[in-house]
Structure formats: structure tokens, C-alpha cells
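Homework-ish question, so no full write-ups if that breaks the rules, but can someone show me the predicted structure for this set?
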Amino acid sequence: MSNKKILIVEDDHDVRLGYHIRLKANGYDTFFAADSLSCIMEARKHQPDLIILDLGLPGGDGFVVMERLKANMYLSVVPVIVVTARDPHSNRERALKAGARAFLQKPVDNDELLGVIRKCLGETSESNLQPEHKDA
Amino acid sequence: MHVLLIEDNPGDVRLLHQMLQEPGSLKAELIHFGCLSDALNHLSAATANVILLDLGLPDAVGLAAVRQVHAIAPDIPLVVLTGLDDEALAAEALQEGAQDYLIKGQIESHALLRALRYAIERQRMQVETDQVRKLQLQLKDEFLSHVSHELRSPLTAIYQFGTILSDELAGAVSTDQRECLQVILRNVSQLQSMIGDLLEVTRAQEGKLSIDLQCTSVVDAIAYTIKTVQGTAKAKGIVLSFDAASQLPFAYADPTRLRQILIILLDNALKFTDAEGLVTVRVQLFAKNPNLLLIEVEDNGCGIRADSTERIFERLSQGTDNGQAGRKGLGLGLYICKELVERHGGTIWVKTSPRGSLFSLTLPVFSLAHLLAPILKNEEWPSDAVALVTVEFRSPNGWPSREIREEFSRDTRGLLVRCLLPDLDVLLPRMADNGVGELFHIVAFADQNGVAVLTKRIREQFHRLKQARDSGLTFSTSYKLLARPTANISISSEELSAEMASTIEGFIKLEGLARASSHE
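A: Not a homework solution, just the prediction itself:
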């Protein structure tokens, strides 16, 4: 089976490279976009399995990107994980409403990020999807 | 100039009236009330340039009168009138917000006018200063919030590449190098929590710390927190122990915030305790008030200097460095802690000695009876019945993440509240974790017809939620009519709500058991 493809949308060059090394080591292929316009172009070109999206982007922020993804028949089903330095207090709810599957704040723990990616890609076994606690 | 005089002695009223009419005086218009309640009524609709308040009114005496006036009209300068033998009281009135005081029998018209003018002028300056300070605070908060966001990106890169090296994604690392990397990463996480604290403090000052009160297990929260900090404790050789009384009731608290409070206290205890030390967490019912839970975090570390225990919960306050404790962070943790505990309706305090510190905090016990009491006091029930409505959402494919599930739960509560009649229906808080489905319980003071209307309203609201449907969520409502508590004069309203609460609790428990067994 070929590797799953992840599009990384992030305007900070170093952070982008950091994602790339970490995700490659975990068996994912990565593509990049540094602004909202090239994000849509890259997404159409590579048809990623998942998108990691920063909110603060040049040329229209992450919310604009999510709107445009939703408008595209193929891209609307691609899970989006928002990873941002912005305040979760005022952005988490908005991002999840806009269609993001998860909202993570920078710096995000590697295990947490990989865990969320696996869940969104349906790579975890069914049992892990059950809630952690069950009523006695 | 409008002078509002609150004075019950007709002789004094006449005297003051004359003084304000004297030639050379500023054009003062006197409005007079003989008791405080009339004056407060007037103030709630109208205003005045200055208030003259007697401290011996028929319906309010002394500082209580000052406080009441100040609460209704904080921006109107206040001058109090008092007898010769009460100058000490007058001095206290100044601390409660009065601008000046006049002693009856010693007032003459020039002094009166001057006192009024000064009072007005001083008040104006105070208001201005307050505004400037508010603006400065706001600017500072905006700045802090901006800075903390900007710091996160470079910190992210440092974390990413530090872990890339230590996980050997960029080649083998020697033992010495790995140790160096551990130091880098430890400092990254310290910096990260400081940045988080900056934002929390900003929010605390804006009164924006969000609290989502629900039925919460304190024992679970403590167990979770201990697991989180266990690594740090082990590394320092500190023993962490946990001691919970049996059969503890749930707290009415925000579970995330509770964990945050506990993490701050435990981090703090670990920081100030030497190797081989002992940190203990205890929880029990508060002996002085069974409606509160008492949580204690005790360490046998270096303690806090007695003169700083008062200030330790203030912003930017830090324990004095005894040399061995190392860095202290920003000194914001305990401030955040205090804000959070108080937002829950609890209190926090500390006892300390050179042999260690004991932090104690209280949180309200969750009580259905307290939630129901205001409704039961409502005397105009439209019907004889009470219904327990259960709304259930199920996600057949499981929930994508705990976070998303909690988000959904919060949104749903928001929507449900819109379907309710605020003085007749109560949406119960989330009752711990409820298995595969998200359950919401509503106590509705309605009969069968009323329930039908309510469930229809709820269904309509949720059918609009396209997103919920797309994600495969299924939704159902059910209800059970409960016997209306007998309106019996011999039963107090407390007993009534306690009785109702236990009936409902019993039913919810049964329902939960039935669900749990059907899912296994």
C-alpha cells in the first residue's frame, strides 16, 4: 500500500521542515504550501489524504482556506487538522465549526499530533475510538 | 448643581437648605429624601452632582448606608453627615468610598460649599485616573496576548528539531548529547507553560476565564493529575500519595479547570520539595460545611516565608528563592488558581511552616436539589406534572476524538437551552461520562402535552444541524412523567427540592445502568 499523503500548509519555513521530517519518519508523504492560494493549487494537484492547516497565513487566513476547500467536491471530504499559535479561546470553536476535525495549539506534542492524524485517517483500530471511560 | 440630601431630621434639613440658599453660594438645587430606600429609588432613575448622606437614617445606619449608596451610584461623590461623637465612623466611611464628612453642629455655609465642591472635583479626578488605568491595563493585555502568540512559532520550531534530534531522526546521538537535548526540551516545555500562563492571566483580568460547570468526579481529576506529574516526581525522588475519603459526592465544577488547578498546585509542591520528599493530595467533605469538598495538597518542602503567604496568590508574586529551588516561572500559577477556584464559588488558602506547606481549597458539592430549588419556588406551575426528558446523541462510528465530543456536547447544551422555558425547565449538567451516547437530561415542569411541545421544539432545532446529520450522528428523545411532589404546607421548599432531586437522580441512575448493560 502506498504512503498516505499529507499537505502541510504553514508559512514558517522551519516549522514546515520540522513537520516534514517527523511525518516522513512515520511513513507519510508530505507536500507543502506557504499561503492560502498555493494551498488550494497544491491540494488539487496532489489530492492529499489529510491537510495540516495553520490559521495565520498570507493571502487569506485558514478560515478562508477551509471555505474554499469546502466548495470543492473532491477536497471537501479531506480531513483538516488546524495547528495554530492563535488563541484557542477565540478560535477553536470557530475552526471546528468551519469544518476542521481537530484544533491543536502550537507547539503541539508529536505523539498528540500523530495520534490525531491516525484517527482522522482511520488508521487506529476500532477499539481505540471508543470513549476512554465507561460508566460503571 | 444638584445636591441630593438623605436626612431624616427636619431641623437639619432646614438648616442645610438655608445654607445652600445663602448669597454667594453656587446655584444649588436641593432634592431631599427622609429615608434611604426612597433615595436609592430616585438614584436608580435619576442622577445628582453630589450626595449628602446622614449616617443615622431610619432604614440604614452607618457604613451600611454608605455601601448601599456607593453600590447604586459609584460615580456620584458622597459626603457623609455625622454627629460629633462619631468621627471615627466618618473616617471609616471615607474608606468605603465617601469623599468627605461634615460634623453636624459644626457646619457653616462656606465650609459646606467648599466640601461639596472639593468632593465633586476629587471624584472627577478619580474617575479620570481610573479610566486611564483601565486603558493602560487593556493595552498591556493586548500586548501580552500578541507577544504570547508570536512566541509560539519559534518555540514550535525549537521543539520540533529538538525532538527530531533526540528521536534520532537525523542520525545517532551519544548519551551526552541526549542529555543536552533533554535540557533543551525541558526548557521548551517550561517556556510553553509560561506563555500559556500569560494568556490565562490576561483572560482572568478581563473576567473571561471560561468555566463549564458540570457534575465532576474530583477523585478522577486528582488521579489524572497525579499520573501527569508522576514523571517529574520520580525524577526528583519525591513520593506522591493520594488519600480520598470513601463515598465522596461529585463536585459542581469544570473538569478541565479542576485539572488545571491541581496541576498548578502539584507542580508548585514538587518545585519546592527536595529529593526524597513527600507530596500528599487529600480530598474529603469539608468539616465546616457539608456542601463543600475540601481538597488539600501538602508537601514537606522548604515552606513559604510567613510574610509572603498573604501575597502568594497575587499576580507576579513568587516565593523567595532558597537557592536550591531553581527558577520560579512567572509567579502567575497561584494567581490563576485563585481566580479559577473563586469562579467555582470556592476559596483557597495556605498554611506554611519551614517544614512544608499545605494548600487547601474548597469546591461546591454537586446538588440536583440546589438546581431545582428556584423552579420549585415558582408558585405558578402551569401543570401538575413534572417530566424528565432525555435527549440522546449516538455516534455509531465512535467519536473522532474526546475533544470533538466535548465540543459537540457544549454546542448541544447551548442549542438545548434555547428550547427551554427559563423559569420552568432545567437542563441538568453533564452527569460524568456517559458511554457511547451523549445524554442530556431536562427536568421540565410540564404535562404530557407540554413535553410533546418541548420535544418537538428540540427535534426542529436539531434537524437544522446539517453537520450533525452528515457525521452520522443519530438523535432520539424520550421522557418519563414523574409524580409531582405534593404541595403540602408542612413540607419546606428545601425538603421538596431534595425529594424531587433524589427521585430524579434515582431515575437517571437506573436509566444509566440500563444503557450500560445494553451496550456490553
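Now go work out the reasoning yourself. Hint: Chain B has 14 helices and 16 strands.
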